Amino acid sequence: MSELLIWSISALMVLAGCWLQSALGFGLAIVAAPIIVLIKPEWVPVMLTVVALPLSAMNVWQLRHHIQLRMMAVPIVARVPGTVIGVWLLMTLNVQWLQISVATAVLMAVVISFWGRKFEVTRGRLAWAGLVSGVMGSTTAVGGPPLALVMQHGEPYRIRANLSLYFMCSCLLSLAGYSVGGILNSELLWQSLSFVPISVLGLMLGTRSRGYIDGGRFRPILMWLCGVAGTVALVGAIWGGI
C-alpha cells in the first residue's frame, strides 16, 4: 500500500472521527484508531493525540460558557497517574497486542454503553473514570468511553463542553508523556500535524450536525460505528498474527 493511499485512508477516518467528536463530544479515536492501527500502527496513539489537541481546544472555545470547571478538575487530576501507567504499557506492548488492545477497548465500550444504566455523577466515579481513561487514552487513544459513560445522562451541551476540556488537558498530559518516553519524535510530529487541517473540516461538519444528532440519533450512530470499527480491527489483528 502506497504512503499516499495510507494517508488518504487515515485522513478519511480522521475526518469522520473529528465530525463525530465535535457532534457528540467524543469519538475521534473510536472511529479512527481501529483502522489506522492496521495500516500505520506507528501513528497510534500519537498522531490521534496530536490531532485531538487542537480539535478539543476549538471545541472548548465554542462551548466555553457551558464548562463546569470544578467538577472536571477531579477526572483531570486522576488522569495523571493513568497517563503514567498508559505510557509504560505503550512502551512494553508489541504492535499486535496494541492492535488487539485498541479493538478490545472499542468493543468493551460498545457493550458497556449498550447495557449501561443511569449513573449519578459523583466525584468518586469521575476519579475512576479519569484514571481508566488515562490508561486507555495513552495506550490506544481511545480514552473517551469511561468518562462519557459516567456523564452520559447529562445535558448534551454540558457533556460536549466538559469532555472537550478534559480531552484538551489529557492530550497535553499524553504528549508530555510521549516526549519523556521517547515515543514522540520530530518526523512523527510533522506527519501528525498534516492531519490538523482535516480536523478543522471535521469540526465544521460536526458543529452543523449537533442539532440533528441530538434528535435521538446519536446512540444508534455511535453503536454502529463503534461495533463495525472494533470488529474489523480485532479480526485484522488476530488474522495478522496467525
Question: What does it look like?
Answer:
- With 242 residues, the protein is mainly alpha-helical.
- It is built from eleven helices and no strands.
- Helix 2 (28-39) runs parallel beside helix 11.
- The protein is globular.
- The model has no long low-confidence stretch (mean pLDDT 86).
Secondary structure elements and their pairing?
Layout: H1 3-24, H2 28-39, H3 46-62, H4 69-92, H5 95-115, H6 123-140, H7 144-151, H8 156-180, H9 186-193, H10 196-213, H11 218-241
Helix pairs in contact: 1-2, 1-10, 2-5, 2-11, 3-8, 3-9, 3-10, 4-6, 4-8, 5-11, 6-7
Please trace the helix and strand order, writing H or E for each element.
HHHHHHHHHHH
The major sheet is characterized as: none
Distinct helical segment count: 11
Q: Give the helix level as a range of percent.
A: over 70%
What number is the mean pLDDT? 86
Protein structure class? mainly alpha
Q: Please report which band the strand proportion falls in: under 5%, 5-15%, 15-25%, 25-35%, 35-45% or over 45%.
A: under 5%
- What sort of overall outline do the alpha carbons produce when their principal axes are compared? globular
**Intertermini distance:** 21 Å
Low-confidence stretches: none
Radius of gyration from CA coordinates: 16 Å
Number of strands: 0
